[in-house]
Amino acid sequence: MEGHKRRNGTMRQRKYQIKARFYVFLSLFLAVALGVTAYVLFSQDEIDLAPSKEIEQGFMITMAARAYISNEELRYEDTYFAGGYPPDDIGVCTDVVWKAFEGIDVSIKDLVDADTYYYPKAYVDVISIRDTNIDFRLVPQLERFFERNSKVLSTDVDNLIVWQAGDIVTFESSHVAIVSPFRNLWGRSYVIQHGKDPAAEEDRLFAADGMKVSGHFRWDENAVKKILWNWPIEEQEEAKLYIDIER
């Protein structure tokens, strides 16, 4: 009888210990969640939230990027293609970007080709020989293009509010990805990328493959017009032949 009481007492004690641990973990989880929420809400005095147009633009970019990586036959292969564009089942990290921008009817290839042609001095340290078959698929060229034609934002991965879906992020000028609307427990954004097979939407913003963020950009919806208008006047009519936009 006495032994039975002791066993019951021990079981109740273990039960209470399990409950106590559960409440400790629950409290820690709630503290983290509330902390992230508070950071997002009270950081607005330091940086404005993305305007509604940018949010819609980001949504369309991410949807196109997701559609691209959803191809189960897609495999990573770093190959040069005449004409520039690879087949649908072959790609690298930069292909996620131009495919994503098709979601907002922007041709990254056309714009990179034009910008590198009319402003070669801006690319002199990243391009030795201009090649329209590959320039738009190389990270250094893309990074320079976005530096020149997009909003340049903070690269601090802990500045949670500045990261929005559809942003472009580069890692040490050798890898590029699209920022996802998903976030991890700590509030950091996921990225949509193809650094290796399979292409995926994953929690890799912080030190992706050991690489630190080198660039963070948000596409300016007026960038196409700005690029076109800044070209030499005599060249603008020719430009309109392959970029569908009016001055």
UniProtKB/TrEMBL annotation:
InterPro entries: DUF1287 (IPR009706). The chain crosses the membrane at residues 20-42. It comes from the Bacteria. Keywords: Membrane, Transmembrane, Transmembrane helix. This is DUF1287 domain-containing protein.
